[in-house]
Design brief:
The structure is a single chain. The chain is α+β, with helices and mostly antiparallel strands and about 725 residues long. About 40% of the residues lie in helices and about 30% in strands. The longest helix has about 45 residues. A hairpin with a 5-residue loop joins strand 6 and strand 7. The protein folds into 5 domains: about 140 residues, Rossmann fold (3-Layer(aba) Sandwich); about 100 residues, PAS domain (Beta-Lactamase, 2-Layer Sandwich), CATH 3.30.450; about 130 residues, PAS domain (Beta-Lactamase, 2-Layer Sandwich); about 100 residues, 2-Layer Sandwich (Beta-Lactamase), CATH 3.30.450; about 200 residues, Heat Shock Protein 90 (2-Layer Sandwich). The radius of gyration is 41 Å and the shape is elongated. It has a 6-stranded mixed sheet. It has a 5-stranded parallel sheet with strand order 2-1-3-4-5, with helices on both faces. A 5-stranded antiparallel sheet has the order 7-6-10-9-8.
Length: about 725
């Protein structure tokens, strides 16, 4: 193994002899560091670069191995280092503790050298695979994230990476951003204006900002919210910014705020007084009156809530008619009348009084109403009509309900959205009209509890039109409190987002399909890694000829070649194996360049579609047979030889591959089942794996025939007229 590529193993033991034994076992393949105590071990583990694996003694004075491992796993950098415990104890509870604190394995002293090597190698390979898979997963998440992501060198302020969402958001190309100082870019200068601000972000490690204005490459201004997160990558401080375009959200919030302010302004400045009272024992007990009562009538809100305040100030000539109108209110739930009223400065004005009864689920009865000075009514009516028309003309559906959720006002956009006319909707709860079965009662309960608590509710809800059609709407419900802080009404603004939701579902389905393909790719790579691992195990236990080690690269390249063909295929489940043969032979030719110049290779191959489970073993067998021919059949350096490779069906459901050379031929008495070379062991083992057989014969050289059955789900044959071609 190249010394520069050696992995580092940290051995921690308070007994020097134990360290020496492990160094002797490992030093041929690994770089070994040693520590005799817990503090020293932690210092080495936190160094740069850290060790790749730690062999840790459990029983040590001071800080024992369990505590060392526990502290190591609390570190950001050390948490990923595999720890194998070493102990002279043989207790199950000790092993349990070891795994609980984060160890990956457990060895009992005195150690077996082969076991140590095997375990160390296995856990290093597992770590490498985990890191590789983690990197692939991170890159896919980075590239497909909806939020814009920017990664910055904290010390220099240079941009290290950006994802497609950010380049799309700002309108810059990937190349235009990489390597630039962040404060050089007009769009990003408000995020980190100078190096001092970057250092401040680095010290804070995590920071969030809302509603930051930002310019795009085409001169537009957008609003973003972002968070910054500082962390280390290979001992290098970086800052990651996650940016989200909230331009539409800010605009909607601004619209809602403006509407809320207009509504509040309307209630405060309108010539109409809003009030509510309860009927108790035949008497009117006032509950609430809007603050403009003092401006219009001269009475404070407190005075207006005193018993008999209202009735005692109704003009005596109108009092009887006013009282007699209450039965009509109770009967019809609504009532409108006009009467004279005495202001605090003793002026007599005309009020238009409009009332409505709200009946609670608990049997309570509340009357809400408005008092309008109609003495100069035309001006006030024109103002009210204008504001009502503005809300009526709004593109978004709007409605106002009372505290119990009954609709008291709606605009035409709501009728168009829901299909219900104003007459059908007024006085009814929206859930009675448009509720679908898409949400359970818990959903509505949570919504109701939120707005009753005074919080604005915003979300997407699936509803049903009068026609029965299902649609999605984005809705914001704003609670309107009275002067006492009690929620009196709710204002709802709705937008039809059915098409947007459908697009989101299609995107989600597409993402699920990609996840499936990623899982399939991971499965195939895992199988290939298992084959490579088996090759190394065979090489360490079966090989007799040291030259067999030279073929390991060729075997791995054969697997990689077939895997690449699968990746480039339109159908990732199968490949045409006949197209793999030339690539496999080319790998062998590079291993014997001098022989390759003297050997003419001819191919006679039918198209054969094989799955990966059959293509890789078959490819390895062909590679070994061709390698045997190049390595043994053409030892006469002056002789020009030929090699013929044939692929085709021999009978129903079976495929045969023949490798024939005109070289020196097999030695007398050759028995492939007794051969101990790695290549022949692989040929016999892989042929059994495919439930096939390999036969050898001396026919003017050597002929090796490999015949195996096809599984219909993994392969198929498409006969063609083969034309042998020479190379």
């Amino acid at each position: 193994m190249n010394a520069g590529n050696r992995k580092t193993i940290l051995v921690v033991d308070d007994v020097a002899e134990n360290i020496a034994i492990l160094e002797e076992i490992l030093r041929e393949e690994y770089r070994v560091q040693a520590a005799t105590g817990g503090e020293a071990a932690l210092k080495i583990a936190r160094s740069d670069p850290p060790p790749d694996l730690i062999l840790l003694d459990v029983a040590m004075p001071g800080m024992d191995g369990f505590e060392v491992c526990r502290r190591l796993k609390e570190d950001g950098a050390g948490a990923s280092i595999p720890v194998i415990f070493l102990t002279s104890k043989d207790k199950a509870e000790d092993e349990t503790i070891g795994f609980e604190v984060g160890a990956v394995d457990y060895l009992t002293k005195p150690v077996n050298p082969d076991t140590v090597k095997t375990r160390v190698k296995a856990h290093l390979e597992l770590r490498e695979e985990a890191l590789r898979v983690s990197e692939i997963r991170f890159r896919r998440l980075f590239e497909t994230a909806k939020d814009g992501i920017l990664i910055l060198d904290a010390e220099t302020g240079r941009i290290l990476d950006v994802n497609p969402s950010l380049t799309g958001m700002l309108g810059y190309s990937h190349e235009a951003l990489l390597g630039k100082h962040i404060w050089e870019l007009e769009s990003l200068k408000d995020i980190a204006a100078d190096k001092d601000r970057l250092l401040d972000l680095l010290e804070r490690e995590y920071a969030g900002y809302k509603r930051v204005p930002m310019g795009t490459s085409d001169g537009r201004r957008i609003d973003v919210e972002f968070i910054s997160n500082a962390y280390l990558v290979n001992q290098r401080s970086v800052i990651q910014f996650n940016l989200r375009d909230i331009t539409d959200q800010v605009a909607a919030e601004r619209q809602r705020q403006e509407f809320s302010e207009r509504l509040h302004h309307y209630l405060a400045t309108s010539p109409t007084i809003t009030y509510s009272f309860r009927i108790e024992g035949g008497r009117s007990v006032w509950q609430w009156v809007s603050e403009n009562v003092e401006r219009i009538l001269g009475y404070s809100q407190a005075e207006a809530l005193l018993p008999d305040w209202w009735l005692s100030r109704v003009h005596p000539d109108d009092r009887k008619e006013v009282i007699h109108g209450l039965p009509e209110l109770i009967r019809k739930d609504v009532l409108a009348r006009e009467y004279r009223f005495t202001t605090k400065d003793r002026r007599s004005i005309w009020l238009r009084d409009e009332l409505r009864i709200l009946r609670g689920e608990d049997g309570s009865t509340e009357v809400v109403g408005t008092l309008t000075d109609v003495s100069a009514g035309r001006k006030a009516e024109a103002e009210l009509a204008l504001k009502s028309a503005a809300l009526e003309a709004a593109a978004n559906a709007m409605l106002i309900t009372d505290r119990e959720g009954r609709i008291i006002w709606l605009n035409s956009a709501f009728s168009r959205l829901s299909g219900y006319s104003r007459e059908e909707a007024i006085g009814r709860n929206p859930r009675e009209l448009v509720k679908s079965k898409a949400h359970d009662e818990g959903f509505y309960r949570a919504m109701w509890e939120s707005i009753l608590a005074g919080m604005v509710w915003n979300g997407t809800i699936v509803n049903r039109r009068k026609s029965g059609d299902i649609y999605s709407e984005e809705m914001t419900i704003t609670p309107i409190p009275d002067t006492a802080g009690r929620i009196a009404n709710f204002v709802a603004i709705k937008s039809d987002v059915t098409e947007r939701e459908s697009s989101a579902l299609r995107l989600e389905a597409s993402n699920r399909e990609k996840d499936f393909l990623l899982h399939e790719l991971h499965h195939r790579v895992n199988n290939n890694m298992q084959i490579i691992s088996s090759l190394f195990r065979l090489s360490s236990s079966k090989v007799v000829d040291p030259g067999d080690w030279g073929g390991m690269g060729r075997r791995i390249n054969t697997i990689a070649l077939i895997h690449q063909q699968f990746c480039e295929s339109d159908d990732i489940s199968r490949i045409d194996f006949s197209k793999s043969l030339r690539g496999i032979v080319d790998e062998v030719r590079e291993e014997w360049p001098a022989t390759a110049k003297r050997v003419v290779v001819a191919y006679e191959a039918e198209e054969a579609l094989l799955g990966m489970g059959m293509a890789i073993p078959a490819g390895l067998i062909v590679a070994e047979l061709v390698a045997n021919a190049f390595g043994h059949a053409f030892s006469d350096l002056a002789r020009v030889g030929s090699l013929r490779i044939r692929l085709g069906a021999v009978e129903t459901g079976k495929l045969e591959i023949e490798v024939r050379d005109d070289g020196t031929g097999l030695p007398q008495g050759f028995d492939p089942s007794m051969a101990e070379t790695l290549g022949m062991v692989l040929i016999m083992s892989l042929s059994k794996q495919l439930r096939g057989e390999v036969t050898f014969s001396r026919e003017s050289g050597t002929s090796a025939r490999f015949r195996f059955p096809l599984r219909s789900r993994d392969a198929s044959l498409i006969p063609v007229d083969p034309e042998p071609k020479e190379q």
